[in-house]
Each structure stands twice: as structure tokens, then as C-alpha cells.
């Protein structure tokens, strides 16, 4: 309609019914178009899920497989080149080795045809060299005896038709008693003198180049550090010692324990003490022993067996230096070592130099370890001795002998199963 004043077109006005009709039509069209839209969207999603995604996954898997195949082909080509290079090098080495063998064969033939047999003077040179080595070893041993002060005190030679008496042997001014007298001394004294003896024996065998049948190891892995344990090395059946490979304690403790019988190399043994019994325990030993071949378990370990092993080592060392030690004298450790150090054949036989000794122990060494162990365990009667006696060492200083710490009927500690 036109404005009567400005004569401009104005908005048309509709009635309420027309507006309702118009809005109804608009809603129907909107719903129709929404249904079409949802249908197309559903078709597109279905096509994407059922067709496009599997196709894309297949193409991706195919591409990854192709890439892996290419990498494998590249690696295979590298391996082939490396194998070919190694084949060429191996072929070259074989040719070089064959050439050297031919050269050596020709040289041997030429030397055998030109060089005469070695003269007898070379044998004399070897003999003189062996004698010089023996003299050097003897000098080292004499210095070792002086350093450790291995002497006999308290004895006297035969005078006026009276028989002489044997004294006590000391090392480092400490008395090393025979097995029957060990109970008379406190454990600390026995441990100290055994440590000196083990150190002396290890240096002596090192200088002489002799390998002993029983090996000593220490709980801290170093010589003289910790507590000593002893066991057999690998060897033959001669002497019956090789089967005693389990380590045994070569030291005493303050715990009162007394062995009832020699321990077996393969079966556990129960030790008894006075007044209460105790079973040997080796759990702490396995945790504390380090170094060369430490013992895994030692329920049958005993000090008596370890001491017998030490006596056997000394007797075998004496045999290698042409010194005969009978079974009845095997307990005098320092006396036997003194005879070894004074032997006229000292240093002439060794496991390391000419003439080479056979491995421990040869058939010529007749001492059986079982017999020695039985004799040591039997605890022979000890020599009577005074409770208190003064003697002089090599330096002239007077020293009191250690008093008896227990009567002969009071037995303590010949077995130590605890570390």
C-alpha cells in the first residue's frame, strides 16, 4: 500500500491465518530437506567405512611391507658384499699360510742337512746353569730362614754318654708344637704360629718352584689376610689325597670343640664339644671366603684334617728335595722344614725348571694321606715339658715359654667349623 503523504511503498501486512499457513509450509520444507541431508550423510559415512578405510589400510600395509622388503634387500646386499670380502680374505690367508708352511718345510730340510748335532758342551752348559739356579735358590732359602728365625730352643746334644733331648722349634719367636701338644696352647698362639708357618712354606715353595698337593686360600683373597683354609688341588690317585678337595679350616676359634673322629672327604660329620654338642655350620663361610676356588660348603671341615694336610705338604716338599720324612716324624713341621732348608739337593729339582719334577705326587712318594690323618687324629702322647722355661732366641733375648693353659685331660678346640 502507498503512503498518502510520501507516496512510498510500505511493507505489506498479512493476516494471522496467512502467517500460520506460511510458517507451516516452511517447516515442512525444512523437515524434508533435513531428511534428505541425513540420508546423504549416512550414505557417505557408510561408503567411507565400508570402502575407503579398508582400501586405505590395505594400501598402507602394502606400502609398509614394500618398505620392509626394500630394507631387507639392502641388508642382504650388504651381507653378500661382506661375505664376499671375508671369503677373499680367507682365501688370501690360506694361500699365505700354505706359502709359509712350504717355506718352513724347506728351511727345516735345509737346516737338518747343514747344521750338525748339538755338541756335548751344551749339556754341560745346562748342567752348570742348573747348578747356578740351585745355588741362587739355596741363598734365597737361607735368607728366608733368617727372616722368619726358624730355630730349635730348649734341647741339648748328647754329653758324656747321655742321650740328648729335643727342644721346641720356633718360627718368629713362637713355638709350633707337635699335634699332641696343641691343646696346651691358647688358640691365638696356634693361629699366629700357623700363619707364620703357612707364609714361610708358601715363600719356600715359590723359591724352589715346587707345587704342593694341598692349596691354602684365605678368606680375604690375599696371602695372610683373613683366615686360612686348605684343600687338595687336582691330582692323581697316588697317596689318596686328591679326593680331599673340600676346604678345611687351618685355624682355631675360642669355641670349645673336640673332634671324635677324622672327617670324611665326602660325608658330613657331627662334631661334639664339652659340655654341649654343636653341628658344624658353613653358611657364613660361603659368604665370606673369596679368592681362588673358595669352599662352597664345608660341614665336615675340621682343624685336625687341615693340620694333616699341612703336614702332608711339608713331607712332600721334603721328598722333592731328597729328604726322607717317616710317618712318625711328620708332626715335627719346623724340624722337617729345617732339614729341607739344609738339604744338599736343595733347589736342584723343581716343577718349573730342569730337571722337571713329576706332578704331585709320584709313585716314589710312599706316604699315604689317610695314614697320616689317622696318626694325627690318634693324638699321640706329647713330650713332657716344664711349665715354665726360659730360652734365648738367635738375637740373644730371653723369652718365657707359654704356660700350659689346660691340663691334658681338658680337651678344647681341635675343630673349627665357624668363620
UniProtKB/TrEMBL annotation:
Bias (Low complexity): 254-278
Coiled coil: 62-96
Keywords assigned by UniProt, alphabetized: Coiled coil
Domain of life, source organism: Eukaryota
Cellular component, GO annotation: endosome; lytic vacuole; protein-containing complex
Single annotated GO MF: SNARE binding
One of the protein's GO biological processes: SNARE complex assembly
Region Disordered, residue ranges: 254-280, 377-419
Ranges of compositional bias, category Acidic residues: 406-419
InterPro entries per UniProt: UV_resistance/autophagy_Atg14
Listed Pfam families: ATG14
Family: Belongs to the ATG14 family.
Name listed for the protein in its UniProt record: Autophagy-related protein 14
